[in-house]
Batch of 4 targets.
Target 1
Amino acid sequence: MSEVSAQQNPNAILSDDGVPLKQKLARTTRTLKWRAFLLTLPLVLFLFISFVLPIGQMLLRSVHNPSASNVLPQFAEIIQDWDEQGLPDEAVFAAFVDDMQTAKKNREIGKTIGNLATRMNYEMPGTRSLFTSTGRKVNKIKAGPYKEALLKTNKKWDNPVIWRTLKRVSRDYTPAFYLAALDRKYDDDGNIVRADELYQIYVSNFGKTLGMSVVITFFCFILAFPVAYLLSTLPMRTSNLLMILVLLPFWTSLLVRTTAWIAILQTEGIINDILVYLGVVADDGRIQMIYNQTGTIISMVHILLPFMILPLYSVMKTISPSYMRAARSMGGTPFNAFRRIYFPQTLPGIAAGTLLVFILSIGFYITPALVGGEDGILISNLIAYHIQKSLNWSLGAALGAILLVVILVLYWLYNKLVGIEKLSFG
């Protein structure tokens, strides 16, 4: 093959073994690429299994919920042809009764009447008892007409709204959970409207989460900047000793640090006792600093502060002190020298620290759950509630997907305004 190539291109540069150099270089490059790919394959598989696949499952779960069609497979197919005028015809009732009897008989995991009742209750609160009571009586229906027989078990089946809702929830793919996450719902006629005031909790909590994250990031920056500056200007031996104090919280459990703040901030805690002793507040006027937003912000600032100090320190350590001395020698005041010479050089560290702290604070869960109470919980706590307690996984997945989109949009805006290439973590 190499001889043929050499004959076709007699001017080609050959290697020692007679193979054209260009061909041999391409072969070597291809081999190196495959070798690099095989070396990174374990990492790619790890990222896919632990990161890409769970996010994909979350996004699918947020729109895919076959709870109704699993229990009522025949009914879910037939009901889609109904024009939603009045009550469905006899064939729809017959399919509904047959599927309900089959579900009660089989009792397969994920295909019970209880799963259907829970799914319907998400759309129409208060209908769970209707399905469970009908499930207990459905075996008594032996023959048609099924419409009359079903109405005898419970007169509530005469409500067309229930059947319209059943038609909607019988579809495997639905935007209903995203609507609920945005404080919206379907009304009796199938139109999208605002949810009842009692259920309008998610949009406001998204706003509160973003607002608190901004406040936490701001306080972390205010506290971290002078600490990082001090660490970068002290002699190496002293700065290393102080850096141990910065890193010391990482050696302590997050749960321990959070519960310590409960003891410090509670009304009978250390801070309130000192304020009462100094006469700043009366004994019966102790400040409530825990189980609210104040407690959440204080404890999260303490926990996330090292994540702001370390990027700032890594950048400040590279700034030569001669820049400030040169600015002073040219007549600049200390403030102007700091503002125009030193501070602009710290922007990569500021950008990295603020981005890191902001994203971490948005997804924080344990600390708000322990010290936030009802006022200081974040959107992550509501997601955990639906995943662990209410078992409304689709709504939890929708909330998580919206949070992911919000973070990506903010990251895009941050890149446009600041530039990710300017970030420096050390």
Target 2
Amino acid sequence: MSPSATAPVDAGEQAPTPPAKGIDKFFKISERGSSISREIRGGLATFFAMAYIVVLNPIILGAGTDKFGHQLNNGQLVTATALIAGLTTLLMGIIGNVPIALAAGLGINAVVSLQLAPKMSWPDAMGMVVLAGLVLMILVASGLRQRVMDAIPSGLRRAIAIGIGLFIALIGLVDSGFVSRNPDSAHTTVPLGLGVAGRLQGWPVLVFVVGLALTFILIVRKTRGAILIGIVTMTVVAIVINSLAQIPDAQWGLTIPTVPDKVVDTPDFGLVGDVSLFGGFHEVGLLTGCLFVFTVLLSGFFDAMGTIIGVGEEAGLTDERGQLPGMGRILMMDGVAVAGGGFGSASANTCFVESTAGVGEGARTGLANVVTGALFLLALVFTPLAKVVPSQAATPALVVVGFLIMAANVKEIDWSDSTIAIPAFLTMISMPFTYSITNGIGLGVLAFLLLRVATRRTREIPWLLAAVGLCFLVYFLLNPIEQALGVS
């Protein structure tokens, strides 16, 4: 035993911190001010906040019919969704070492189901997704994708994070039934309203309200595991209420809080690998095929970019320049996820804003992703259990995290500079109001470029950001461009 091992520590000195080992060292858990228990809690919270995708993605893709009248099998879609989400989330955790989970992207799956598939076969449509992922990986390998992210001004980065916070808060309010869309038949100028017909109705909404209040109280009292405690507690409450009150399934939505008849189910991998890379070009032509790939590429590019920035800022992982450690690996794994989603016929996988639920629990490393990814893989055989948590029990976490993101970022924007403040404002409101991260980033970038040109500050515009603005201009004008070219 060395002398230093037994030497007493002076009162004015601190004992040296023991070197990190094993899992701690690999994921840099202590270095980032976290702990294994926090990472596990964070991984659980993220999974419960986004487990709905195992149910929702098959519904969206299954509703589509390809050019030949074929529909995808629901059971196979459930397997593909859980499998690709689990694998890509694990890869992001182990290689990227960030608590950013991935799954089939909402919005992109609608493009695949409603825009691509009707003009080609399902394997052709998924091949387009794979090609978009391969292009993303090339952009990352060339360094171009990271340079685009670096070119975004700090104030706009903060606004992107806030916009995502508002976006996921609205997702929470809508998915819980606290806020609902007014039907067009109502002939009202108000697109959204409280509950149903302006009133909160039913036990499920009460579960959300109580869960939201409980989670905020736990946050204010600085209770460890506040978000996860809220989700688990309200899931149990929902199961009890549903068993006693016999609530119609439609009031709960996609997930019914009941004790499942069976715990284990057999996965069906029939869709995995059923892909045709270039068959879509034969069906629609080279130009239209390239536009389809561009649409998937652009949505995946900027949705993921906004989420990575937002989650990174919320987790405190960014440096003074707003960059995350190992950004190249993170972006490459996102490209792999897009291609992997197409290969598995689950549609493009992308970074999920619900990862902020885990960050809110203290997750700071990829270990949280390992937990989330493992749970998705377990869902392959334990799908009945994954369907136990109703959205009303999980969505309070999204509203709470939306608040936390805004509180952490809004004061960091330079509101005295209108060329930053106005684009920031447009970015923040556009994401929830258009239900799209990509739209918010696009409007913010275009507004920033316009105002800098109008104030003769063009020298302050990075050329790469100007190129991004041009891409967004094409994105917003894509429909008239298609019509002009006769490919709509």
Target 3
Amino acid sequence: MVILPAIDIKDGTCVRLFRGDYSTAEKVADNFLDTAKSFEAAGAEWIHMVDLDGAKAGRPVNTRIYTEVAEKTALKVELGGGIRNIGTISEYLDMGISRVILGSAALKDPELVKESIEKFGAEKIVVGIDAKNGFVATEGWLESSDVNYIDLANKMISFGVKYFIFTDISKDGTLSGVNAEQLRALKDGTSDCNIIASGGVRSIEDIKICKEMGLYGAICGKSLYSGNLDLAEAIKFSRE
């Protein structure tokens, strides 16, 4: 299983949100590059990064930050936030980003997902499914829908999508534990895909739950910054 430490950027600063609420943004680190390098030193191979400003604006905002991490570390960068067209995907991949996240676009512009998979391949695209009470939310979690998260996943699989990030928004930034029930339902309700758990990871116990479920990966943010989870320990366990 892959452990993906997370850096979310708002106003050029490393922050964490509570349940996706932008007004709760809390600075968690002084320097994004130093933080990324500390993750690399702990043994991470991937880093999960989100352009919160971009998610809200619907376009890339903090591009330099992500490309600098890609250039100045050996980490593979998984990036989301404000990616709404094929041109942005192409530019990010050309700049050294390893995998881009399509979130709102999966619901609002499914043809973009289909085209992206055809043009760049399934290894370069991950669909982010963010849910409130089992229904998909979009636009930086500011809008809700009546689409069930498993139904959306299966539609994306029909386009050739292989990677999904599932976030239970009610868990995100709360240190209350992953939503094992919804993650298991997603795994059981889909086939031939790689699921990354996001939201609520609190301790090594959550990593164990995800690994026992056979998930592809887990994103860790607040648990690392709060000291509840040791990244090196989590990575070591995930590889055993």
Target 4
Amino acid sequence: MSLPALSPTRCAGPLATRRAFMQIGLTGFASLGLPGLMRLRAENALKPPGERTAVIMVWLPGGLSHVDSYDPKPDIGSEYRGPFKTIATKVPGLRFTELMPLQARIADKFTVLRSMHQTAGGHPAGTMQMFSGDPDTRDKPKPRLPDWMSVAHYLRERAGGRANPLPNYIGVPPASPEYSSPAYLGDAYAPFSVSDDPSRPNFQVPNIGLGDEAETRRLSERLALRKSLDRMERAFDREGELGALDAFEAQAATLLTNPRTRDAFDLGKEDAATRDRYGRNRWGQQLLLARRLVEAGVEIVTSSLNGPLCGRVNNWDDHAVNHHQFEALRFRMPNYDRAVAALIEDIYARGLSKRVLVVVTGEFGRTPKISFDRSTGAGNASAAAGTLQPGRDHWPRAFSNIWAGGGIRTGQVIGATDKRGEDVTERPCAPGDFLSTIYHHLGIDASKITIKDFNGRPTPLVDHGRPIPELIA
């Protein structure tokens, strides 16, 4: 897929000044205050590429049941307790369900946050809370605020200092694109999307790295001709604003002509044992590709674990009408466990554990109390339509996520829930804390930086919350 195109904006008129042009913006570009911009330049622009931090976010759309995974409650009644046994992990006293033996063996390499909570019960609003900090509990048709991935991409691009030919924000595939967006930053800060299945033998990323030298040469000649034809128009561009438009075309051309871009996406360069360790399936190869991309200098990577590997409805939304809750977990968790464990192992084995932060989460958990309803259709992890089966519904009041790398102290358990897993009882963490922690790793002080929205109002990145101390290097 090609890089996002500029979307239309209101015209400022032929006599617009440079200042007016930038305020109106390309697709609503927001303006970063000068102090914030200068601070970011000082903190990031002069750092060698190897020191610039990165984040891989593994997204579980629909929400993983915390009580069937990282926060089991084996001593509660049958109305709540699932069928899974608990197992010991590498961390003394920490237990997971039997569904995650590989992660249990490396639990000393990540930290479990058991006290995440938010206030929205629907997928759209819950995702917007986790991605942007929007406190609204209504399921709006589109986001009002830009997600943290687009914000980080925007700020880092504005700070400069990158010479990497690859896009700085890549979704493999993007996380919940229907519920996240760059909003007033403009489509230029949306992710470069990898939608194909990396486990397919003929996996390709369109518009990346031309393999034919003659084709590359012809493209370069066409670009040179285009530039010469544009010179007359540029001669009338006294302020130089039109040059900003060329940046996106230049990046698209770089993706086609620079061999480094093709190599970064080439999973064939990994040995067979490594590919096997991640799992020869879509999720495993997505996370292997995510690791390759951060090694190649990409700084924001998301990977949504959805699709057929989830079961009949292609996500983690395990209502009884969608899935048999426990069959769905049996169906998907071996691939999930293998892929996440391999990614975390590699972050440490390949010397990325300080620079790269890995976060695995969904928008909420699932109801600790089991519900029953009739299936709406047969398929993987769901009985024939009309069959009564168990499920768990949306539960934003308490859920778990895991954190690895980023220089943090691992082998920790942060927070706790009550005996049924219904409510947080220790160390509550909200979306503002979640976002502030990610921004902190990226060198962004979310409490001080504002970006102007469509109306020119300075909007804080996070107006509530602070970095979680236990997750700060």
